[in-house]
Each structure stands twice: as C-alpha cells, then as structure tokens.
Amino acid sequence: MGIRMWGETDVRRAGTAVLAAATAGLLTRMIIAANSPGPADVRIFRGFAKAITVYGPVRIYEHPLPGLPVYNHPPLAGWMLMGLNSLTDLGFSFATLIRLPASAADFCCALLVFEIVRRRAALRTAMLCGIGVAVSPVLIATSGYHGNTDAVAIAFALAAAHLLADRKSPLAAGVAAALSISVKFIPVVVIPALFVAALRGGRPVLVRFAAGFAGLAALVWGPALVTVPLHLERNVMEYAGGSYRLWGLVRFADVLGLPEPVIAFMQGGGHFLFVLVCVAAGIRLAWLRPDRLPGVVALTLGLLLLLSTASGLQYLTWAAAGMFVLGPVEGFAYSTVVGLVAVLGYSGRSAVRWSEPVLYLGAAGWLVLAVGLATGVRRILADTGPVHPSTEPAPRAQLENAP
User: Fold this and answer.
1) Counting C-beta atoms within 10 Å of the first and last residue's C-beta, which end of the chain has fewer, N or C?
2) What is the rounded CA–CA span in Å between residue 340 and residue 343?
3) Over the stretch 227-273, which tens digit does the pLDDT of each residue have?
C-alpha cells in the first residue's frame, strides 16, 4: 500500500487552523494588554519613549535618565518607541501600544513555526506546533502582559533561518537577521551560525546574505555607531542583564552557597564565556546540518537561556517558539512548566521577586529546557531525511519531529 501524500487542501486546512489559533492568541494578548497595567517595564518604556522624543533615538544613549534604568535597547527599538509615543497623541494608550509589537510577533511566529515544521515532519505535527506557539502560556504572559521586545527579536531570528534554509532567499534572510539584533541584541548569538549556513550554500548565497545583513545593519546602527559609539557599546553590546538570582546557573550557585566572588564573576565578565559556548554550538551545528538551520537557531537561543546568568520573566521568551521547532513534546513541556513560572511570577508582588514555589517551578523549567535541548541536538544530528521543498507538502506517514 503506497504512502498517501498530503494534498494542497490538507495543507490549507492545517494552515487555516493555525491562523485561527494565532488570531485568537493575538486577541487574547491584546485584551490582556488593554485591561492590565503590566509590570514596571511598561512604565519604564514610557519613560524611555518620552526621553527619546527629547534627545532622539541616537543621542539617547549619551544622556543620563534620572529615575530610569540604563537604556540598553538597540537603535531600531528607539525608532519604535518614538513611533508608539507619537500614537499617544491620537488618544491611544501607551501601556497597550507597547505590548502590541510582541503580541503581533507571536502571531507571525505561530505561522512561521508551522511553515518550518511542516517541511520536516508530519502535517499534524506542524499544525500542533503552530497552535502551540499561538496558545503558549509563557508567550501570552510575556507578550500580552509584559510587552518587552524579546518576542520580536526571536521572530526575526527564526524568520532569517527559514528564509535562508527553506525559502532560498539569502538577501531577505540577511535583512531579517539584521532586524533581529536591531530590536534586541540577544539574537547576536545566532548570527555566526547564519553566516556559516550561508557559506555552506555557496559564494552567491553568502554574498547575498552578507549584503542584506550589512545593508540593513548600516542603515539602522550606522548613525549611532558614528555619533555615540562608546555609549552604544557600553549600554547595549556589553549589557549583562540584571543581578537577580532567580533562574538557572546563578540560582543554583546561590542555593549551593558558592562564594560571592564566583557568582559576581558569573554575572559579570564571566557571562561572555557562556555566550561563546552558545555561539560555538550554533556554528558547529550549522556547519554539520545547514539544512536544519531553523532548528539550529532555535537550539542556540534556548542554550543561551539555559546558560543565562541574568534573570527576568521576559527572558523565558527566548526559547518558547524555538522549542516547538525542535518538537511538539519539547514545546508543550517547556510552555506548560515555564508558563506557570511566568503567570505566577507576574501575579506576585513583583516580577523580580519570585516566591518559593515559583523558584522551584523555575528550577523545574530549567531542567525541562535542558532535556528538550538535548533531544533537539540529537534529532538535528541524527536526522538525515530530506527537507520537503515549499511546493511539496510533507508525507502523511512521516512521523518524525525533525527540527
């Protein structure tokens, strides 16, 4: 009995289901955004936006901002904040607007994950993964309630991998890669892997990818690099995150009673060592399996969260969509456990003061992430099946959840 292929109607129905879930997820996020004040970051972003209207999105880096933390966002975020602030003159609420970009990014990411997974796994698996992103508790909490820019940066990073590996559009992939680090600097860890995959595609692919990346990066970063290079480097490129000990390695180090100088080194200059580990892992996997680039990018971002020495509920976004790229079990397990961390964390007195139950759940979420990344690496290295081109739907009988 021959293998029955998924037809165009099947793919269209699955895509429609994901689109419906993504739309419902977007509406849910925006309802939360419109009816809740959000954490302190909403107020902080409002302060940043007001300061940018005074100093501009470039000069903002060199000015002290009394009552506000360091402005550690890349240049494109400044233009975004200036645009959102201008909309408040039309009567829109800034508290709602600041959560719109991340919520919209989740909407796009659900569709993107569906497209990535359906080329490498059964159609039902792809549909589950896309819906999983749309209804992910951790993404709903971090995007709809918190509203930072992490989800936007992650969406652009995954889009760059998809465009390069699946769509064979290196120029657009380079632009998406540059956009990812221009919104938030976190995806810088995947840029070397993207360049390695482009190199593996041949010189024309590398040249087009580099042109797209360099062109957009020069446009967005150029003015600040020329005008305030030292302030930009200190505020954005060298930013190590907060000093809270709520998550991962620093949490375990604190519980085990490691000396304070050790923990201080981990959160200071030592965190660059963990970043290098992430970069090296991404480069190696991209060289071995450039065709699995979306999974490589997802794994690298997840590894960054696993080894992160900074703590913040919004950081949990880094791995949320990517875990569904690695597999539905990994995605739902992570979103469920870490989603509880996010919901309970935001329900407490402060998003940076977790209760004991939330701290224990955070430790469990870290272990779930570690296991999911381990299975993801194994699947990337072991899978030798072809990637289905965009014009051919995946075979119904193929049950592997290859990233």
Assistant:
1) N
2) 5
3) 999 999 999 988 877 778 899 999 999 999 999 999 989 988 888 99
Q: What are phi and psi of 92, to 5 degrees?
A: -80, 150
Which tokens belong to 250?
């620093």
Q: Are 152 and 102 in contact (CB under 8 A)?
A: yes
SS3 for 340? helix
Separation between Cα atoms, residue 243 and residue 393, nearest integer Å:
47
Tracing tokens 């690496």 back to the chain, one arrives at 377
Residue type, 307: L
Name every residue whose Cβ is closer than 8 Å to that of residue 365 and which is 6 or more positions away in sequence.
316, 334, 337, 338, 341
Place 188 in a pLDDT band, splitting at 50, 70 and 90. Answer: very high
Report the half-sphere exposure of 57 (CA within 13 A, side-chain side).
19
As a whole number of angstroms, the distance between CA 300 and CA 193 comes to 9
pLDDT in tens, 272-331: 999 999 999 999 999 999 999 999 999 999 999 999 998 889 999 999 999 999 999 999
- Strand, coil or helix: what is 5? strand
Computed on alpha carbons and rounded to an integer, the radius of gyration of the chain in Å comes to 20
> What is the token pair recorded at 120?
């490498």
In this structure, what DSSP letter does residue 225 have?
H
Crossing angle for the helix pair 293-307 and 191-200, nearest 10 degrees?
A: 160
Question: If you search the block for the tokens 């739907």, which residue do you land on?
Answer: 393
Residues 6 or more apart from 83 whose CB is under 8 A from it? none
- The total of other beta-carbon atoms located within 10 Å of residue 54's CB is 9
Pick the closest to residue 155 from 33, 364, 317, 327 (CA basis): 317
Q: Which residues pair with 353 in a beta bridge?
A: 350
pTM for the whole structure = 0.93
DSSP state for residue 143 in the 8-state scheme: I
